[in-house]
Specification:
By secondary structure, the protein is mostly helical. It has two domains: 273 residues, no CATH class; 317 residues, Farnesyl Diphosphate Synthase. The strands form four sheets. A two-stranded antiparallel sheet has the order 1-4. Strands 2-3 form a two-stranded antiparallel sheet. It has a two-stranded antiparallel sheet with strand order 5-6. The radius of gyration is 29 Å and the shape is elongated.
């Protein structure tokens, strides 16, 4: 019986912690562990004096035959371990659920928040202040409300502090990301506590409790205690994420942010007056996230594994590329589409024009040009494009790729005289180089800028060449997936000389993009894609460790579409709007498998 409390940990808390660790391990970074261990340290020393008071005053008691006997300030070793394991469990669940979201998009201040949010924050503060006052009253009165009062005057000040600082941020976060890591561990520990109280592993002094049970032997005070402590852990993790979001988003205020930011810097970010936030930038990030979520589920999923500022800049880069492509592609006339290309080129001329010192790029006049030329929904994508760290040439290539898309346009409204500019594999490769290799190089340039690992010039050169080759592979997969979609737009990106070999014309594909001969061509294109993929995949091992797995995930998530297409419709392929998609479970498996392999 001396091990009864220890057995509770062996049967209930440690297995759950182990399961969450196993699931989360591939996703965990040094930063995640830094946040978790720091919070465990804070929780341990914030709870120890309070718990010691309860034990020394007989409010909590532990039968001698239920514990091993080791104590610190009268608190049994098993109880001390509970401080650690509960914080760890809740932190791991929070981390797992919050990995996919970019917290920068939820930064806000009073002016950016709705009236409803303001009232929710005020009501939360009133409730917490009232709980502190009520708790103090119960403790002063003594008797049956003592334990409940002690819980309230201990937990509510911490909650009030974090809610006052981060209330608007918490309210903006998706409810599931905040509520789930509070509710699930709370309910689980309620069950564990009910079993332990029923066995007499620990008990509450009858004269200090109300005597109300939620169910079975679970006392009301214990139910409130676990709810409050898990809420405090989650609020603590939210405070960490808010601080990091501030550091990553506002580089003008925090130019240098190490991967493991010291607590002093995190505190400075948390205490920064939200009125000073550049909400225009935050709103630009929100719009970029929404574009990414709608237009590329594969990259949206992969982006969650990129660290800090690199993740933000990659999303902003993608947003620009997507907005530019949509404006050109969705233009009602060919002349209008060419005009957009010219205007994007003019914008790049402005942002890459030398500044007054003759060296660094300047954005002089660019903002005025954007607002006078482009639709409002495109402003943020252009305003926040991180051109400072990127060369001009890949953008020029991208615009040239748009011109190739326009070459498919027909001359007359009756859709006669359709042109098909992809004559052979050389044209196909050139097109992929313009629209995909260019973007791959831009992404890699951002990696070089943000990485804390210094690479040699030779390694950088090899990686850029590999990124451009990988761009071919990804674009070929994209073409193979979208044959039917492209046909609806009057486009056939399959090389015309391939079509001749199959005794088929581009017009035949426009009429019926699902015929058997098209499937043969699709498989041929996929073979070419995987050939290019194989050539460049190994070179990715040269990437800095902190970005290697995320970059591989970005590639593998897209190449998985190619694997699905190779398997065919009989292998669980999902078809949405005429294109094959990868089931969610399979995309998650790609992420988990890749991260685990790179640990």
């Amino acid at each position: 019986m001396a091990y009864d409390y220890a057995i509770v940990h062996l049967k209930y808390t440690i297995p759950l912690a182990g399961l969450l660790t196993f699931i989360s391990r591939p996703l965990l970074t040094k930063l995640d562990l830094y946040k978790t261990y720091t919070l465990i340290f804070i929780a341990f020393f914030a709870t120890l004096p309070w718990d010691s008071y309860l034990v020394r005053h007989g409010i909590w008691t532990y039968p001698p035959d239920a514990i091993v006997g080791l104590r610190l300030f009268s608190v049994p070793a098993e109880e001390l371990f509970f401080f650690v394991i509960q914080t760890y469990i809740t932190s791991m669940l929070y981390t797992l659920l919050n990995k996919p979201i970019l917290h920068a998009q939820f930064l806000t201040n009073k002016n950016d928040s709705s009236t409803k949010s303001r009232w929710i924050k005020i009501l939360g503060q009133i409730l917490l202040v009232g709980s502190i006052v009520g708790g103090a009253y119960l403790v002063k009165r003594g008797g049956e409300g003592t334990y409940l009062g002690l819980i309230l005057i201990w937990a509510c000040p911490f909650a009030l502090f974090t809610w006052s600082l981060s209330g608007y941020f918490i309210i903006r976060l998706p409810l599931v990301n905040v509520a789930t890591p509070i509710i699930i561990p709370t309910v689980y520990l309620w069950v564990v506590d009910e079993l332990a109280l029923g066995r007499g592993t620990w008990s509450i002094e009858s004269g200090t409790k109300l005597g109300w049970c939620v169910w079975g032997s679970l006392e009301l005070e214990e139910a409130i205690f676990f709810l409050a402590t898990n809420a405090l852990v989650v609020f603590g993790m939210v405070a960490f994420d808010r601080a990091l979001a501030v550091l990553y988003t506002f580089s003008n205020l925090f130019p240098d942010v190490p991967n493991l930011s010291p607590l002093g810097l995190l505190a400075k970010a948390v205490l920064l007056d939200p009125a000073t936030y550049d909400m225009t930038r935050v709103k630009g990030i929100r719009e970029a996230i929404e574009t990414l979520r709608r237009k590329s589920r594969s990259f949206y999923l992969a982006s969650s594994t990129f660290p800090g500022r690199l993740r933000i800049d990659l999303i902003l880069l993608y947003s620009f590329c997507r907005v530019a492509d949509d404006l050109v592609d969705e233009s009602s006339t060919q002349g209008g589409a060419h005009s957009w290309i010219s205007q994007f080129s003019k914008y790049l001329d402005l942002v890459y024009a030398p500044s007054s010192d003759g060296q660094s790029p300047s954005t002089h006049h660019a903002s005025v040009y954007v607002e006078s030329t482009f639709p409002e929904e495109a402003w943020s994508a252009l305003e926040f494009l991180p051109v400072k760290f990127l060369p001009r040439q890949p953008f020029t290539e991208l615009l040239q790729g748009f011109k190739t898309d326009l070459a498919f346009r027909w001359t007359y409204p009756e859709k006669r005289n359709i042109r098909f500019p992809i004559k052979d594999e050389a044209d196909l490769e050139l097109y992929a180089q313009c629209v995909a290799s260019s973007v791959g190089e831009l992404c890699l340039r951002l990696v070089f800028h943000h990485s804390e690992t210094e690479l040699s010039s030779r390694s950088k050169s090899e990686l850029i060449n590999a990124a451009r080759t990988m761009g071919h592979a990804l674009q070929y997969v994209n073409i193979a997936r979208d044959i039917a979609i492209d046909a609806e737009m009057g486009r056939v990106y399959l090389p015309s000389n391939w079509l001749k070999e199959e005794i088929i014309t581009p017009e035949d594909i426009l009429r019926d993009p699902n015929q058997p001969k098209v499937e043969n061509l699709r498989q041929r294109l996929l073979e070419l894609a995987f050939k290019e993929y194989d050539q460049s995949r190994k070179v990715m091992n040269l990437l800095p460790h902190e970005v290697r797995a995320p970059m591989i995930i970005a590639v593998e998530s897209y190449m998985e579409i190619g694997r699905v297409l190779r398997e065919g419709k009989g292998a669980g392929v999902q078809i949405q709007r005429g294109r094959a998609t990868v089931p969610l479970w399979r995309r998650l498996w790609v992420v988990w498998r890749t991260l685990l392999a790179e640990k």
